[in-house]
Amino acid sequence: MTPNPRQSLLLEEVRARGSVSVEALAEQFGVTLQTVRRDVTLLQDAGLLARFHGGVRVPSSTVENIAYRQRQQLNESAKQRIARAVAKAVPNDCSLILNIGTTTEAIARELLRHKGLRVITNNLNVAAILSDNPDCEVIVAGGVVRTRDRGIVGEVTVDFIKQFRVDIGLIGISGIEADGTLRDFDYREVNVARAIIDHSREVWLAADHSKFNRPAMVELARLSQLDMLFSDAAPPAPFPALLAEAGVQCVISDS
Q: What separation, in Å, do the N-terminal and C-terminal C-alpha atoms of the chain show?
């Protein structure tokens, strides 16, 4: 399904709060309990929400990510705001690596007017988007293409990335846990992201508010390995202290 505007806002509210009662959602959006229950049923049938007695939550798993098509729709406006903030910070005439993820795809769209870019990516969607920019040279990594999201992974991909050293490594992430670890679900994707971190002069992370305190199975890196974090809302505790301790610049996009 494609959520309507109210359902999209409902999803964002649940993602932000973790779990919400049906009554609170009805009050928040000024609709009846029956309307909320109907929306929740549709979203549950689509796999975007899970119900429990008295409320709803977003399905969570430490071993499997939400399906790509669902992730495209989740927090879409937040990702667009983040993308605009990232693009504003990216200078012309620089080299970047962009990895797998719906947020990095949003960033690619915001880079279409940049000039003199050289972009390396293991994301076929990013490559397709940026190929429309005549002032951007796109280099696509080799490896195995994941059909579900057109990400390229594997040892060949890691070896390809290791040939370069770029100005900015721009990565997305599935979850940031309270111990300061950045986590994802696919160890092959994680290995590629680690190579990106190791071969970038600066490492920028783009993560919307839903990624904080979200569990995932594989440790990718730690906050201390980042230079900048772009998000759509101020991170909850304990992340401000962790970011300050690690010396990470945090950029919150305009609403």
A: 26
Contact between 97 and 76 under an 8 Å Cβ cutoff? The reply is no
Q: Which residues are within 8 A (CB) of 14 and not within 5 positions of it... i.e. 6 or more apart?
A: 20, 25, 49, 56, 57, 58
User: Distances from the Cα of 103 to the Cαs of 58, 81, 141, in angstroms?
Assistant: 19, 10, 19
CA distances from 239 to 176, 231, 250, 253 (A): 9, 12, 10, 17
Pairing of strands 55-57, 19-21: antiparallel
- Give this prediction's pTM: 0.74
Q: Is 29 exposed, middle or buried (0-12, 13-18, 19+ CB in 10 A)?
A: middle
Strand, coil or helix: what is 1?
coil
Q: Give per-residue pLDDT as tens, 86-143.
A: 999 999 999 999 999 899 999 999 999 999 999 999 999 999 999 999 999 999 999 9
What single-letter amino acid sits at 91?
P
Q: Helix (H, G, I), strand (E, B), or coil: what is residue 85?
A: helix
pLDDT in tens, 176-205: 999 999 999 889 889 999 999 999 999 999
Nearest to 175 by CA among 66, 87, 76: 66
